[in-house]
C-alpha cells in the first residue's frame, strides 16, 4: 500500500515527466500490483475518451457565425460586419470582403501588379540589352570589364604555342 | 480617276509612314574614335581630352593616359572604318547594327587576330585594347557613338 501511494501519482505521466529510475520502478511495481494495473487501465481509457468527447462537442457547435458574432460585439468593426442584404448571390462574397478588407484589396491588386509587370517586361524589349559582348582573340586570353559607362576589353598575353 | 489618284496618294503616304523608322534606322551614326595610350609608369595623369573616360580608365592598372589620335566618322550600317595604330597594325571598326537606343560595333585588329562585337547604349563608350603591352605601355581605341 505504501508503494501504491508512491506510484499511483506516476500513473499516466507523460513521456519525459519521469526519470529513468522512476519509470523503471513504476514498471516493476505495476508488474506485481493488481490495484495499480487497474488504475493504469482507467487512466488509459479516460485519456482516450476525453479528447474524443471534446472533439465531438466542438463538432456539434456551428461556428459559421462565430466571426460575425465577434465582430458585432466590436462597435467600429460591427458596422463593417453588418450582413449584406439577403437574397443576392453576391452577399456571401461581399460579406467576406467586408470581413477581410486587406486581403480583398491585396487580391484585387494582384492582377493589376501582374499586368504592370508584364507591361514593364514587354517594354524592356526596346530597352538596351545587357551590353552583349562577344570577344574572340586567337592565341590569347581576353578580359571584359563591364562598367556603367561601357565595356572595357583587355587583351591578355600571347599564350605559348601548343598550350 | 480622282478616286484612283486619292487611293494612290494614300498608299504612298502609308508606305512613307511605314518606311520612316527604317529610314531613320538606316541613317548614319556619328562616331568618335580615339586612340589612347596607357602607361603603368610615371605620375598618374589623364589627358584632359579623356575626361569623359575617367570612369572606365580608372578601372585599369595603367596610371597615365594620353590621347594620340582622333577620328570622326559618319558610319552607315555595315560600313567599316580603318585606322592605323601606332605599332603599324590596323584597327577596323564596323557598324553592325543600330537601334533606337543601342548600337553594335565590330572591332577588329587583324594583326592580332582579335575580333570583338560589342553592343552599347547611346550614352556608353567602348574602350578596347588594340596592341600588346610593351614596356608597361599599351594602346587602346575608344569608340563613342553620337558623341
Largest sheet of chain B, if any? Answer: 5 strands, mixed
H/E element sequence of chain B? HEEHEEEEEEE
Count of extended strands of chain B: 9
From the spread of the alpha carbons, the general shape of chain B counts as: globular
Count of runs of 4 or more consecutive helical residues of chain B: 2
Q: Share of helix among residues of chain A?
A: 55-70%
Measured by DSSP, the beta-strand proportion of chain B falls in over 45%
Radius of gyration of chain B: 21 Å
Task: Detail the topology: elements first, then pairings.
The complex is a heterodimer of chains A (163) and B (147).
Chain A: H1 2-7, H2 20-32, H3 34-60, H4 66-73, H5 75-80, H6 91-99, H7 101-123, E1 133-137, E2 140-147, E3 150-158
Antiparallel strand pairs in A: 2-3
Chain B: H1 2-26, E1 29-39, E2 45-46, H2 54-57, E3 64-75, E4 80-84, E5 90-98, E6 102-109, E7 114-121, E8 126-129, E9 137-145
Parallel strand pairs in B: 2-3
Antiparallel strand pairs in B: 1-3, 1-9, 4-5, 5-6, 6-7, 8-9
Task: Please explain how this structure is put together.
The complex is a heterodimer of chains A (163) and B (147). Chain A has 163 residues and is α+β, with helices and mostly antiparallel strands. In chain A, strand 2 and strand 3 (150-158) form a beta hairpin. Helices cover 56% and strands 13% of the residues of chain A. Chain A has a two-stranded antiparallel sheet with strand order 2-3. Chain A is built from 7 helices and 3 strands. Chain A has helices at residues 2-7, 20-32, 34-60, 66-73, 75-80, 91-99, 101-123; strands spanning 133-137, 140-147, 150-158. Chain A has a domain at 2-60. In chain B, the strands form 2 sheets. A 5-stranded mixed sheet of chain B has the order 2-3-1-9-8. In chain B, strands 4-5-6-7 form a 4-stranded antiparallel sheet, with no helix packed on it. In chain B, a hairpin with a 3-residue loop joins strand 5 and strand 6 (102-109). The radius of gyration of chain B is 21 Å and the shape is globular. Chain B is built from 2 helices and 9 strands. Chain B is α+β, with helices and mostly antiparallel strands and 147 residues long. Chain B is 20% helix and 46% strand. Chain B has helices spanning 2-26, 54-57, and strands at residues 29-39, 45-46, 64-75, 80-84, 90-98, 102-109, 114-121, 126-129, 137-145. The termini of chain B are far apart. Chain B has one domain. The A-B interface holds A 126-129, 131-140, 142, 145, 147-155, 157-158 and B 53, 55-56, 59-60, 99-102, 104, 107, 112-121, 124-130, 132-133, 138.
Amino acid at each position: 500500500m505504501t508503494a501504491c501511494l508512491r506510484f499511483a501519482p506516476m500513473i499516466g505521466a507523460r513521456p519525459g515527466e519521469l526519470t529513468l529510475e522512476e519509470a523503471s520502478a513504476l514498471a516493476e511495481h505495476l508488474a506485481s500490483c493488481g490495484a495499480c494495473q487497474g488504475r493504469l487501465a482507467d487512466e488509459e481509457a479516460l485519456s482516450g475518451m476525453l479528447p474524443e468527447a471534446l472533439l465531438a462537442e466542438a463538432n456539434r457547435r456551428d461556428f459559421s457565425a462565430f466571426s460575425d458574432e465577434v465582430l458585432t460585439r466590436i462597435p467600429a468593426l460591427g458596422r463593417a460586419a453588418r450582413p449584406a442584404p439577403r437574397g443576392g448571390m453576391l452577399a456571401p462574397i461581399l460579406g467576406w470582403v467586408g470581413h477581410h478588407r486587406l486581403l480583398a484589396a491585396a487580391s484585387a491588386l494582384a492582377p493589376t501588379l501582374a499586368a504592370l509587370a508584364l507591361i514593364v517586361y514587354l517594354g524592356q524589349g526596346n530597352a538596351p540589352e545587357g551590353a552583349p559582348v562577344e570577344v574572340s582573340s586567337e592565341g590569347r586570353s581576353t578580359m571584359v570589364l563591364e562598367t556603367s559607362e561601357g565595356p572595357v576589353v583587355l587583351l591578355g598575353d600571347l599564350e605559348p604555342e601548343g598550350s | 480617276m480622282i478616286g484612283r489618284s486619292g487611293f494612290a496618294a494614300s498608299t504612298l503616304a502609308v508606305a512613307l509612314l511605314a518606311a520612316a523608322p527604317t529610314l531613320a534606322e538606316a541613317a548614319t551614326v556619328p562616331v568618335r574614335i580615339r586612340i589612347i595610350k596607357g602607361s603603368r609608369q610615371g605620375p598618374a595623369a589623364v589627358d584632359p581630352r579623356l575626361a569623359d573616360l575617367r570612369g572606365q580608365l580608372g578601372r585599369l592598372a595603367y596610371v597615365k593616359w594620353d590621347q594620340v589620335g582622333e577620328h570622326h566618322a559618319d558610319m552607315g550600317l555595315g560600313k567599316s572604318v580603318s585606322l592605323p595604330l601606332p605599332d603599324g597594325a590596323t584597327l577596323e571598326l564596323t557598324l553592325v547594327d543600330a537601334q533606337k537606343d543601342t548600337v553594335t560595333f565590330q572591332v577588329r585588329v587583324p594583326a592580332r587576330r582579335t575580333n570583338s562585337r560589342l553592343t552599347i547604349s547611346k550614352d556608353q563608350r567602348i574602350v578596347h585594347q588594340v596592341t600588346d603591352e610593351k614596356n608597361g605601355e599599351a594602346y587602346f581605341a575608344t569608340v563613342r557613338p553620337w558623341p
